[in-house]
TrEMBL record:
One of its GO terms (molecular function) is efflux transmembrane transporter activity. InterPro entries: OMP_efflux (IPR003423), TolC-like (IPR051906). This is Outer membrane protein TolC. It is found in: Cell outer membrane. The keyword Cell membrane does not apply. The lineage of its organism: Bacteria, Pseudomonadati, Bacteroidota, Sphingobacteriia, Sphingobacteriales. It comes from Sphingobacterium lactis. Keywords: Cell outer membrane, Membrane, Signal, Transmembrane, Transmembrane beta strand, Transport. Belongs to the outer membrane factor (OMF) (TC 1.B.17) family. Pfam families: OEP (PF02321).
Amino acid sequence: MKKTISILYIWLCGFAVCSAQGLLTVKDAVQIALENNYEIKLSQNDLRIAEENTTPGNAGMLPNVTGNFSQNNSVMNSSQVQASGETRSLSNAKNNNMSYGVSIGWTIFDGLAMFSRYDQLKELKKQGEYELKRTILTKVSDVISTYYTIVEQQNLLHAIDSNINISKERLKTAENRFMIGKASRLEVLNVQVNLNEDESSRLRQANVVKNLKINLNSLMARDLAEEFDVEREVEYDDTLIFGELLEKAKVYNPDLQIIAINKRIAELELKRIKGGRYPTIRLNTGYNFSESESSLGFVSSSNSRGLNYGVTASINIFDGFNQRRNERVAQIAIDNADLMIDQQDLLIRTAMSTAYETYQTNLSLARLEENNAQIARQNLNITMEKYRIGTISAVEFRDAQENFINAVSRFNSSRLQAKLSELQLKEMIGNINL
């Protein structure tokens, strides 16, 4: 039994190396999710749309070239009275008109609004990049959190397995003590009840691990029933410094970056609207061909071809004060963007302050629970020796056994919480490294 307890302690503290077939590392899980996750793919497609839209033509900076063709035919009963008084008439007179050509129109000045639109498209592309980054950060965080939760719950399952082995050894010892008259039948039954309780706990815990693995497979967008093993260690970074994290968050946090881009877009929108105060100048040119035939008239047929060109200019003189109203609304949108930047900055500083305090607490708990697990192990060894020689009851041994399992479980849980706190802080600064 002492050997079993020692092996159990080694397993639960993570000193053994997992060599099972089908091992999935946390890096593998993240890589698979980056390749397969549907939300990441959707965000990538949104970015591709923004990239396709970022063109001078979409901003109205390039000319429009149009090909034209038209043909009109008519059959009419016509009658004409000429200046000489002569009357001419014709039934079913045919008239045919056909024209075709190419026309070009180019707005060369619109109050610089086209340049503002182009800059807006560039900012929308940047916004798509940061939204993709935010989606990736969220999904990577979800994958890592789920992965290490599986590690913690899998270690708890191993603890329950080892606990069952200890309970089986206890049952053998109790039966031997009963056979030589040193224990009552009641003691044997109590130990049997404890063993049944441990086996029932294992079934529930195995179900927890199975469901977590299904969730991780879902995040990786692969077969939900695919089996895999996980690492046994939960390694966390205990060197994070609040001041450094806060400075990085101001520069790299995707939410802050997106709000800053929204302000820039609002400023460009105001610039575009102000362009309405200036004239719009448009060049027009084209080359056209036309042909016509008439059964009745002075000209029976005609055709022409040639170049046409010109310039048009227009300016808004009065539009019911809508120009002024639009400018004021655009300025309010800029003011709102400033407020949102300040609000988001406060939210991030608040969230990081609370997360860092939790991080520090979890680090302290991890160190404390590691020491508690060692003490509980020593206590279990001593209790086991006393139980073997019959100086304590099975109930007292069960208490020591449960205390040890609980202590080691709390140790694993504290390491997981420390890792999750670290992960939360790194997600806020926009940099999750493995």
